[in-house]
């Protein structure tokens, strides 16, 4: 295979920012035996990967419109002598290494958010009210870098197991583009899968791991209550919709806490309630909307039944009618023990003995979870904060990423793929 340079990005991003330097500055220049070729390859690719990341950041695309991003990825993989496959609509899958036996998959999500970019950097979004505010531009470049480094390993005859790169669309919408990838055969022949997610609360050069649930199931729920309506002086002659909504808001979360194992991290939180317009009139309808989250997949599977029963039972004495809508989102990301151990070993090999942290559980949702219902795998939190610098938050337009995280993440996933193979 050749390692030709990718087409020049349309953003003038050749000059690294002050945040970009040798990752060896953070890990002391040391790496475990057997990783030398990966370290060398990614050091050579460092500036190019940063430029690609900035180009993607400047041209964000929301879920299921990521055609430019998909072609940019595919073109760079072809330039390396690989044979990427464009998925229907958007997204890319690319196999490399040995063609026999099961493969290890590395997944990146490539979509952006409908959020205004306020980072103020030269490569900020050129698309109004669309930004890579969750770090998917970094995820994409991490997996691209890992793939290019592994391709060099394969050229040298040092890759013993096949690897599949998955550049997935539509992570930011439910139930998620991972289902599209699986429907297109993206997991066929895969025995294990890895991913990273940016964590701006963790310093660059470090990764957070956890066995078991690392994210939450996330569902949307809505309860609409209707009744006769009437004057507030005569509530006994009406179905009191406002009172009924109050019972749903206060009692249903309490019921869930008693009907489902409290260790499962069930959380029902209301975000909107609408009913009536006058102080002395009982309305004929009202609605309350919220999110139902669970850290345990078994509780998530049972939660819908318990939620429906709780709403109906709470409202049964109140002479009102109810309509319940429960949009299932994604299950929790449950990291497999073996896969997590492999990620931790890879981190220590390429990032240093002290690079692994225990990460907290998040109540956010991630559609990487769907892959883990089919094959074992794990997701790690990738540190993106400059040591001593500002702590940003994801899904905010001012998010900044220490770009040394690209090399760190690529080394991590490439090494994990080798160990898993």
What does this structure look like?
The chain has ten helices and 16 strands. It is α/β, with parallel strands linked by helices. The strands form four sheets. An eight-stranded mixed sheet has the order 1-2-4-3-5-16-6-15. Strand 3, helix 4 (136-155) and strand 4 (163-168) form a beta-alpha-beta unit. Helix 2 (36-58) runs antiparallel to helix 4 and helix 4 (136-155) packs across helix 10. The longest helix has 23 residues, at 36-58. The protein is elongated, with a radius of gyration of 24 Å. The chain starts with 23 loop residues before the first helix and ends with a helix. Residues 1-9 and 11-20 have low confidence and may be disordered.
Condensed summary:
This protein is α/β, with parallel strands linked by helices. Helix content is 33%, strand content 23%.
- Profile the largest sheet: 8 strands, mixed
How far apart lie the N and C ends? 21 Å
Question: What's the rounded overall pLDDT mean?
Answer: 92
Helix-strand pattern, N to C?
HHHEEEHEHEEEEEHEEEHEEHEHEH
Radius of gyration, rounded?
A: 24 Å
Largest beta sheet: strand ordering:
1-2-4-3-5-16-6-15
Give me the secondary-structure category: alpha/beta
Number of helices: 10
How helical, in percent, are the residues?
Answer: 25-40%
Shape: elongated
Q: Hey, roughly how much beta strand do the residues contain?
A: 15-25%
Number of strands: 16
Low-confidence stretches: 1-9, 11-20
